Amino acid sequence: MENQAMEECRAVYLTAEDLRVAASILYNAYHDDPFFMDALYRNDTAQYEQKLRGAIREELNELWQQEQGLIGIFSDERLIGVACIATQQVPLGEARYWHWRLKMLISAGWQSTQAWIKKEHQIVESLPNANCGIIQFIAVSTNEQGKGYGSQLVKTVLSWCDEQPHLDGVGVFVSDAGHNKLFANHGFEKLEELEIGNVAGELMFYRGQNND
């Protein structure tokens, strides 16, 4: 099934017209994510969902405007998987631009924005050097899971990473055992254990070919 999925899908950079569908895929995939539940949920499901939609929308728009790695995999003409990589060529964590902070504050609230900044700061501080990226989002459409697309999406991210001349690798914070196994199977190594807010997980890292 995985080989069939690889033959049928294609990977391309997302266009501005793809961002709405990408945001929907990410919203469904991250709806129950431990970090977002910890950072955004305040005993009000409707408010949480509104904040999550807003946070994903603002981050996608920011990554797009900053020309960061926004990759999609398509089956025929349908976008079915999304990966978003931020490099330290743009400010992350506590160095985030004020316009991003303001938009995120309006969309997700002060505490949620601060939680996002602290998460990025912890990850950036734990990466080997400033020439490393962070996988901000990576997800396959819920009705397309279990078909090998997730594996193909990770491979696409690694190929993208290897093609970037000034990128030594990419890190990702993982708090789910299944996701941990997926990344480990594709060459990610555990850098260290992190506790982000109330969520424990591991920072996993792929050392790109430029770092050999």
The percent range for strand residues is: 25-35%
Query: What's the rounded overall pLDDT mean?
Result: 91
Kindly report how far apart the N and C termini lie: 33 Å
* Number of H- or I-type helical stretches: 8
Low-confidence stretches: none
SSE string: HEHHHEEHHEHEHEE
Question: How many β-strand runs?
Answer: 7
Q: Give the neighbour order of strands across the main sheet.
A: 1-2-3-4-5-7-6
Helix/strand structural class: alpha+beta
Helix content: 40-55%
Described by strand count, sense and barrel closure, the largest sheet is:
7 strands, mixed
Question: What general form does the structure show?
Answer: globular
Q: Calculate Rg over CA atoms.
A: 16 Å
Structure notes:
With about 210 residues, the chain is an alpha+beta fold. It has eight helices and seven strands. A seven-stranded mixed sheet has the order 1-2-3-4-5-7-6, sandwiched between helices. Helix 4 runs antiparallel to helix 5. The relative contact order is 0.16. The model has no long low-confidence stretch (mean pLDDT about 90).
